[in-house]
Amino acid sequence: MSTSADDYDKLTKEERVARDKADREREAQEQAALPYRWKQQLEEVDIVVPVPAGTRGKDLNVVLGRKKLSVGLKGKEPIMSGELCQEIKVEESTWTLEDRKEVHIHLEKINKQQWWANVLTHHPKIDTTKIEPENSKLSDLDGETRNG
């Protein structure tokens, strides 16, 4: 059930909290169902794609394009494949195989002022207006330094 911004404005604070919580839970379930995990900062997106244990780099077929991403095992259907929701800097984006069981993909965004709603355009979106950027750790350090 999606409502327009006007409807949302008419809700009480409690109703908004309940709606936001329900939206977050639905979003979390949709994201958990994807064949990968991802997180982002304004400048970059990091994706972890589980692959069968014992996979070797030469078994993988990974394609990083300006607006395209495909990850899979050679000779099989890709685990994830499609159009990226935003363009990336291909020459600054990388992938590595970790512990022979996960492909770690690092994408450098071209637009470093925009949150991504999803990785691939056909996958469920997250509400980017609700993203709370991680605060820089400098503030933590200052507190410890002063107290020490």
UniProtKB/TrEMBL annotation:
UniProt cross-references to InterPro entries, sorted A to Z: CS_dom (IPR007052), HSP20-like_chaperone (IPR008978), NudC_fam (IPR037898)
Pfam families for this protein: CS
Keywords: Cytoplasm
CDD domains: p23_NUDC_like
Species of provenance: Somion occarium
Entry annotated with the keyword Cytoplasm: yes
Protein's name in the database: CS domain-containing protein
Biased composition (Basic and acidic residues): 7-29
Alphabetized SUPFAM superfamilies for the sequence: HSP20-like chaperones
Subcellular locations according to the entry: Cytoplasm
Domain of life: Eukaryota
Region (Disordered) residue spans: 1-32, 126-148
Residues of the CS domain: 31-120
